[in-house]
């Protein structure tokens, strides 16, 4: 059944980015319906094919992944996808693609950045994807303009936590949409392009809708600048410069933290040891392969080791370890006297706390120093700036739990945001005409749970439900905290506005 028959316009549908309480499995469909010579034609794009992180909660025995359901866009017909665009390399935006290839589906050309292509090539090897089944990869960069059927797609650089992160300007006769991807407004990126504000300023007043990454909107102000993370690391390390060993765990998927921690160690003239689990080492090799030469950056006076082998004695107890939390004891045997830990991510705190306490090691956490965490998503201030820059387009929120947006409406309206109401859910279909976005249909939101046996793959549709794994109480508490936070910000902004009026 042709759901858009005879209805000219640009259509948007979240297939896996507007979950109930999870931030994962991102996937979005854009279909342009145009008419020429009394006949209709359709151009469909897919942006991102991520995997759903908490697939265990779906209850399918033996499942190894969960995917957004895009089978109908890969199986022929008028809605056959003409292209796939990948915003960046993180698994919740990319890794679903590899499972569709493993399942035997043929994908159209895939547009992606060079670093993302490197990650994908590694996934090909890991999952043993036959070369004949691999889609054509077309590399993109900031400023590229790609014609796909009746749609024009312009590539916009985005500040995020990995190389080659992009948003897309999607143009049709019906509307112009800015799909942000994961982004923040931060020009202090290291060896990466920042969000292209110059181009966005040129498009001011010309963008109808922004499909926006609202992950960090609960935090007031601008997102932490990477240069501030660097400065804070240097400050803490300088305060403990008498310690011979500094331990800095980083997220494997965040290349910017590898680099920032490395540069901070150089600033303090610390030798550097990179060491962690297999995942950490794989990403380190990709960073090096991308062109970051740590040895050249270090120069002749600083030694860089990539494994804590016998050569560690060369470092003479003056080094920083950049790695993962679970390999602390394999790098050195720390004591209170000569060691210090710097926890740059909340996820690491609990696993590290026990290790540090057992060894009586002092440490600083991201709770004490929030600027230590390299966060790749814009805060409320980033989106206030974007809203002003683009002259109040319609914002379509994605990439956050639904309760965040539902709590945000009152504050957003006070701040001058035009927001799509109610919050869009997976598999709801919207027609966009200029700055108007209207829901025209919906389907039961499902994930595809994937399990493999020796001969073939099995797909099990699973209806979307609350899946945090933390239970109803945890979700309720998070919802209430979010509501209180937004009310406090609203109260503060109203007082400020009243004070300005009185002044």
Report on this structure.
There is one protein chain. With 503 residues, the chain is α/β, with parallel strands linked by helices. The protein folds into 2 domains: 9-222 and 375-489, Ribonuclease Z/Hydroxyacylglutathione hydrolase-like (Metallo-beta-lactamase, Chain A); 226-372, 3-Layer(aba) Sandwich (Rossmann fold), CATH 3.40.50.10710. Helix content is 29%, strand content 24%. The protein contains 12 helices and 24 strands. It has helices at residues 91-102, 114-127, 197-202, 226-239, 255-267, 278-290, 294-298, 328-331, 349-358, 380-389, 402-414, 471-502; strands at residues 9-14, 28-36, 39-47, 65-68, 81-85, 110-112, 137-139, 145-148, 151-157, 166-171, 176-179, 209-213, 245-249, 271-275, 304-305, 319-323, 339-342, 363-364, 394-398, 418-419, 428-433, 436-442, 446-452, 457-463. The strands form 4 sheets. It has an 8-stranded mixed beta sheet. A 7-stranded mixed beta sheet has the order 8-9-10-11-12-19-20, covered by helices on one side. A 6-stranded parallel beta sheet has the order 15-14-16-13-17-18. α11 (402-414) runs parallel beside α12 (471-502). The radius of gyration is 24 Å and the shape is globular. The relative contact order is 0.14. The model has no long low-confidence stretch (mean pLDDT 89).
């Amino acid at each position: 059944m042709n759901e858009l028959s005879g209805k000219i316009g640009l259509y948007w549908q979240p297939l896996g980015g507007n979950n109930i309480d999870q931030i994962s499995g991102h996937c979005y469909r854009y279909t342009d319906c145009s008419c020429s010579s009394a006949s209709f034609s359709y151009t469909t794009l897919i942006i991102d094919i991520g995997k759903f992180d908490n697939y265990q909660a779906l209850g399918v025995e033996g499942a190894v992944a969960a995917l957004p359901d895009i089978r109908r866009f890969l199986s022929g017909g008028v809605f056959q996808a003409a292209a796939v665009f990948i915003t960046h390399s993180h698994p919740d935006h990319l890794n679903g693609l590899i499972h569709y290839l493993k399942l035997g589906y043929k994908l159209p050309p895939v547009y992606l950045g060079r670093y993302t292509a490197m990650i994908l090539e590694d996934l090909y090897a890991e999952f043993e994807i036959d070369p004949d089944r691999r889609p054509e990869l077309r590399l993109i960069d900031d400023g590229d303009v790609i014609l796909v059927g009746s749609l024009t797609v312009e590539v916009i650089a985005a500040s995020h936590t990995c190389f080659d992160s992009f948003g897309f300007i999607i143009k049709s006769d019906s509307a112009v949409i800015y799909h942000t991807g994961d982004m923040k407004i931060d020009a202090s990126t290291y060896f990466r392009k920042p969000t292209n504000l110059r181009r966005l300023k040129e498009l001011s007043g010309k963008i109808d809708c922004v499909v926006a990454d609202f992950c960090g909107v609960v935090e007031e102000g601008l997102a932490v600048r990477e240069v501030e993370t660097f400065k804070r690391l240097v400050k803490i390390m300088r305060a403990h410069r008498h310690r011979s060993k500094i331990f800095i765990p980083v997220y494997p998927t965040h290349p910017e933290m590898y680099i920032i921690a490395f540069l901070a160690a150089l600033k303090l003239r610390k030798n550097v040891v990179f060491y962690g689990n297999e995942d950490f080492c794989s990403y380190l090799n990709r960073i090096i392969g991308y062109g970051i030469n740590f040895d050249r950056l270090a120069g002749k006076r600083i030694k860089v080791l990539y494994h804590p082998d016998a050569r560690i004695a060369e470092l003479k107890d003056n080094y920083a370890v950049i790695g993962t939390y679970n390999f602390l004891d394999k790098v050195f045997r720390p004591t209170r006297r000569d060691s210090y830990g710097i926890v740059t991510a909340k996820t690491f705190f609990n696993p590290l706390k026990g290790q540090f306490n057992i060894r009586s090691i002092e440490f600083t956490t991201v709770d004490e120093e929030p600027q230590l965490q390299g966060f790749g998503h814009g805060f409320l201030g980033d989106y206030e700036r974007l809203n002003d820059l683009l002259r109040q387009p319609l914002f379509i929120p994605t990439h956050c739990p639904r309760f965040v947006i539902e709590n945000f409406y009152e504050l957003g309206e006070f701040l001058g945001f035009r927001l799509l109401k109610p919050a869009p859910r997976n598999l709801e279909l919207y027609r966009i005409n200029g700055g108007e976005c209207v829901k025209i249909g919906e389907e039961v939101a499902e994930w595809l749970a994937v399990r493999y046996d020796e001969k073939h793959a099995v797909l099990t549709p699973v209806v979307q439900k609350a899946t945090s794994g933390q239970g109803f109480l945890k979700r309720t508490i998070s919802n209430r905290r979010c509501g209180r936070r937004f009310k406090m910000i609203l109260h503060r902004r109203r007082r400020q506005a009243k004070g300005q009026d009185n002044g």
